[in-house]
Amino acid sequence: MRGIEQHLGEFEARGIRVAAISVDPPEASRDLCRKRGYTYTFLSDPKAEVIRRYNLLDAKAGEQNLARPAEFLLDSSGTVRWVNLTENLWVRATPEEMLQATTLMR
Questions:
Q1: CB burial of residue 22 (10 Å; 0-12, 13-18, 19+)
Q2: How many CB atoms lie under 10 A from the CB of residue 58?
Q3: The pLDDT of residue 1 is above 90
Q4: Residue-wise pLDDT tens digits, 55-88
Q5: What's the pTM?
Q6: CA separation for the pair 98, 105 (Å, rounded)
Q7: 65 burial via Cβ count (<10 Å: 0-12, 13-18, 19+)
Q8: Whole domain around residue 72: which residue ranges?
Q9: CATH number of the domain residue 59 falls in
């Protein structure tokens, strides 16, 4: 997420709005944003409703409603145009990979 913040201007210059969704309560997301200096949108999904719709619940997490690590790029109509899914919390698409993927959306 820190890498996203560092490249936020590049995303915005391409007309891309960045948002993060987590099961954390809004207060936790606000605290994280303040602590880390994140300025993009954080959305709270404490009941994992959106996470379930995208089939992202981590089956290994049991009853904890944790999401699998994922990055999505949606076009202006809301159609998913690019997805990166992983089982490893520490392996994510880099901002550079995501910016490269935006060229496929044009």
A1: middle
A2: 15
A3: no
A4: 888 777 666 767 888 888 888 888 888 888 888 7
A5: 0.77
A6: 11
A7: middle
A8: 2-105
A9: 3.40.30.10
